[in-house]
Amino acid sequence: MFYFSIILASFIINGRCQQTDGGKAPRILLNDGNTIPAIGLGTFLGFDEHGQKKVEPREIEIPVTWALNAGYRLIDTAYIYGNQDQIGVAIRKSDVPRENIFIVTKLDMHDQRNVISALKKSLHQLNTPYVDLFLIHFPIAFKPNSEEFDVIDYLDTWKDMEEAKRQGLAKSIGISNFNISQIERLLAHSEVKPAVLQVEVNLNFAQNKLIKFAKDNGITVMAYSPFGSLFSNSSIPPPPRVHDPLLNSLAEKYRKTVPQIVLRYLTQRGVVPIPKSTHKDRIEKNVDIFDFELSPDEMDMLSNFNKDYRLVWPSFWQDHPYYPFEKKSKPDPNPFHAD
Ligand SMILES: NC(=O)c1ccc[n+]([C@@H]2O[C@H](COP(=O)([O-])OP(=O)(O)OC[C@H]3O[C@@H](n4cnc5c(N)ncnc54)[C@H](OP(=O)(O)O)[C@@H]3O)[C@@H](O)[C@H]2O)c1
Ligand SMILES: *[C@@H]1O[C@H](CO)[C@@H](O)[C@H](O)[C@H]1NC(C)=O
Ligand SMILES: *[C@@H]1O[C@H](CO)[C@@H](O)[C@H](O)[C@H]1NC(C)=O
């Protein structure tokens, strides 16, 4: 035990662990004793005019291969992304041992009454006996194979998540898209605390309150849509865009790209960004952010971009009793529907 403690202590410096997984990112200690790489690859392809984009053969397998070669050790997926089989193939074909890769997947919203069998379905697609992190994708639920709401208390879903961890099917368990009062209720009524909360965090959606709340409760935050509206051509979302002068002056100073500055900023805030790209050069650059450090003044300047502007805002679900976000007076049409 004594020697074990010394070995453990030597890996953990200020809550950051030196990685021994062969990747580029340090690891962060979770509240259950497991560690998570400080950055990961996002794999959701998004929507087009027909609804959720169809995944073409090898469209995700090839970027995941590039990512593993570039030093990523965290891959973020979900049942609903329809790409778990390709991620499984990329991992099997790679030279990186399974135990050095941190796989995150999420519970399908249509399967909240069948957590264990839903997870086993994901494990089968991923071709692995366990995932490193299993998240409740959303606090709201649908009936199986249906667009009809189902009302399932997320406390009941969480009991099955705890069982998934007990059975070793998921090393860590967590939540996504939960709000503060939902997490408070979960903490008050659970045996296993969520290790991770995955929510939108980017320059114009800082999530200051939620991140502080998570930190105070020992929950690590993963930042989805970490670029926010950085590459948007629309005039509606607030700045910054990739041409922003402040971002470019920092990029020049550190000889980095603007996306690298943004991702470095997020990791220095202590959150785990999961930038998505299917371009090799971008995938390689996005992970190469661990050889420079933004100053406290620069961190402050970047924090001033916050406008509490939510980009991922599925208001078409807002009539569900467990809908976690602010409600809109006129909800948006549902992009999941192909019509
Ligand atoms: N839990 C949830 O409910 C939830 C919700 C949303 C997202 N997520 C997860 O979070 C991941 C990331 O979020 P996201 O995909 O919404 O947005 P994102 O990662 O912030 O942005 C992705 C966009 O940025 C572009 N991009 C990436 N790196 C770039 C670079 N270096 N230079 C220029 N453009 C670059 C990508 O284009 P290319 O691909 O063409 O390079 C893509 O259009 C998702 O893939 C998914 O895994 C989870
Ligand atoms: C913005 O416009 C450029 C040039 O037309 C295009 O390449 C890019 O994909 C667009 N970005 C988005 C987020 O639609
Ligand atoms: C959090 O979610 C609950 C539903 O479980 C909702 O009643 C509440 O209004 C939400 N809080 C905020 C701040 O949106």
From TrEMBL:
Signal peptide span: 1-17
Gene3D superfamilies in alphabetical order: NADP-dependent oxidoreductase domain
NADP-dependent oxidoreductase domain: residues covered: 39-305
Sample GO molecular function, one term: oxidoreductase activity, acting on the CH-OH group of donors, NAD or NADP as acceptor
Key words, A-Z: NADP, Oxidoreductase, Signal
One matching Pfam family: Aldo_ket_red
Family membership noted in the UniProt record: Belongs to the aldo/keto reductase family.
Name of the protein described by the UniProt record: Aldo-keto reductase AKR2E4-like
